[in-house]
Specification:
LOTUS-like; about 20% strand; Nucleotidyltransferase, domain 5; OB fold (Dihydrolipoamide Acetyltransferase, E2P); spermatogenesis; alpha+beta; about 550 residues; five-stranded mixed beta barrel
């Protein structure tokens, strides 16, 4: 999340500079071309969770002003800040005559569309016309569609058709795009950006829906009351036995408890551990991939070419992880629910599966080591990295969030070994650069001691780039024709320590990778990947 924020801030500066230099503004297509020409890479839409350039710039109201021409074309113009006002004035003065000639047109446009002097640029009218409004019935249908759960923008049309038996044709109401529709309903619908795309969330869902659900869970005796009666105790014990999850109760001294949470307002009103809190269970891993299988991957965490973690580019897996993180964010960000799952000191121990909040998002983690009274180091099972966090950020993981397998797969680059015995910093830096923000093709070779050895290939360029060949050609690696066990993973492999192999966790749901292709299909499309690996490349 922090990387996305930093990337967005850099992108805002670049976009503002390009638009200020364009006297008449740029269309979204021209902005894409200009960015490619200047930065030598496309706009990072996917990295920031956007589907289009127009969607991106609508999230930069302090940077970009969106205007419409008579023919319906959209023009993007810069909104200068304090550091760029001088440059903007110079550019504006170069078009004094043109601006005078088009004063009437500009005045007419400003009557409908926002200007850079707008106090609240996010609340401007729809671009097609100042009077475009959705009928009340259609608004009610959209709100009803989102009342049960958030929905990805890409899935809106299908969901609307399935729910109401007709397509959502916003153009007949005077709108040019779906983004204009969402802006007109900004008082009731929030658009949140995710890796899977734009997520539509009903504002009421963020507050009242969560509160109602938590209240319902409490009333359904999911958690015991503070002062249970004898009958309630018997029902509670029976429910615990049915779940086969023993409840551990502890008598905690109130004074010690207050010392542990000094300066942290959220602490539980009862020392009882909720019955649905995970205490002695582990996450399971994804099912193993077949040998010679081709699969789309994204490299999430890199320590070296012999130690890194990947995500499988599967729509199913991506959606399930995204849904899980959104649900955890909604539940644990609610104070009542968060208080119930605070972990006592006795539960903060190595190997404990729990969750932690980092930058307002909640992640499934395993405690790797306790550093001191305030900090612990945790392993993020879905992304593969180790991180030091505050103990006060930890919460018990709800039983429901145990089902999805750990999404990070430990990997090592196949058939290579470092020239110097250990990977140099230059080799690691090069490998990180090759992997950065790209969807790659992984060619599965084999598993060695639970670590997936695979070849990585970048197919986004004119010619396929095989990473083991780049490292060899740069003098950083030798091709050895076999897989040598990773020294780094032998020293520390958190996945092997804390994640159960697939099939050993009884309550875990199996998620088969859906992008694994047959080798013959790949050979037909790109001219035999096998020859490239076994022939001249090796």
């Amino acid at each position: 999340a922090s990387k996305q924020v930093q990337l967005m801030e850099v992108l805002k500066k670049e976009v503002r500079a390009m638009l200020i230099a364009a006297k008449a503004g740029l269309t979204p297509e021209q902005l894409e071309e200009q960015y490619m020409a200047v930065v030598c890479k496309p706009l990072p839409l996917r990295d920031l969770g956007f589907q289009s350039t127009l969607e991106l710039v609508t999230q930069m109201p302090e940077v970009v002003q969106i205007c419409s021409l008579k023919d319906g074309a959209l023009i993007l113009k810069a909104i200068a800040d304090d550091s760029t006002k001088g440059i903007a004035k110079l550019v504006a003065n170069q078009k004094v005559k043109t601006r005078k000639a088009s004063k009437k047109t500009a005045t007419k446009a400003n009557a409908t569309f926002p200007t850079k002097n707008s106090k609240n640029p996010q609340n401007f009218q729809t671009l097609s016309a100042g009077t475009s409004v959705l009928p009340a019935m259609v608004k009610a249908e959209l709100q009803d569609l989102l009342s049960s759960s958030p929905l990805l923008l890409a899935d809106l049309d299908k969901a609307f058709l399935r729910r109401f038996g007709r397509a959502f044709q916003y153009r007949q109401y005077g709108f040019l795009s779906m983004f204009e529709v969402l802006r007109s309903m900004s008082d009731s619908i929030v658009v949140e950006q995710t890796k899977a795309g734009s997520l539509l969330v009903l504002r009421k869902y963020l507050a009242s829906k969560i509160e109602q659900r938590e209240a319902f869970q409490a009333s359904a005796a999911e958690m015991p009351p503070l002062e249970p009666t004898c009958e309630t105790k018997r029902c509670y014990q029976a429910a615990v036995l049915m779940d086969s999850e023993p409840v551990q109760t502890q008598a905690v001294d109130l004074g010690d408890h207050l010392k542990q949470h000094q300066g942290f307002e959220q602490f539980p009103a009862t020392p009882e551990i909720p019955p649905d809190a995970v205490q002695d269970r582990s996450l399971c891993s994804l099912p193993p991939l077949k040998r010679r299988c081709l699969v789309g991957v994204i490299v999430e965490c890199v320590i070296s070419p012999s130690q890194f973690y990947i995500h499988i580019c599967s729509t199913e897996a991506s959606y399930k992880l995204q849904d899980l993180m959104f649900e955890m964010r909604h539940v644990y960000s609610h104070k009542v629910a968060s208080d119930k799952y605070i972990m006592p000191e006795s539960a903060v121990r190595p190997g404990q599966l729990c969750c932690v909040m980092v930058s307002k998002w909640w992640y499934r983690v395993i405690i790797h080591r306790v550093i001191n009274d305030q900090e612990v180091e945790v392993f993020c099972a879905d992304y593969g990295h180790l991180q030091i966090v505050q103990k006060s950020w930890l919460r018990f993981l709800k039983w429901h969030y145990l089902k999805l397998p750990a999404q990070a797969i430990p990997c090592s680059l196949a058939w290579v070994k470092p020239v110097e015995g250990t990977w140099s910093s230059a080799a690691i830096l090069l490998f990180k650069h090759l992997c950065r923000f790209k969807e790659l093709v992984g060619i599965v070779d084999e598993y060695v001691d639970g670590v997936l050895n695979l070849f990585l290939c970048d197919t986004s360029t004119k010619e396929d780039v095989y990473f083991h060949s780049v490292l060899r050609d740069m003098g950083y690696a030798d091709i050895c024709g076999e897989n040598i066990p990773s020294q780094e993973f032998e020293e520390l492999n958190p996945s092997a320590l804390y994640v159960q192999p697939s099939g050993k966790q009884g309550n875990a749901e199996v998620v088969e990778p859906d992008l694994c292709l047959q080798q013959e299909s790949r050979d037909a499309d790109s001219g035999t990947a096998t020859l490239k690996l076994n022939g001249a490349e090796v």
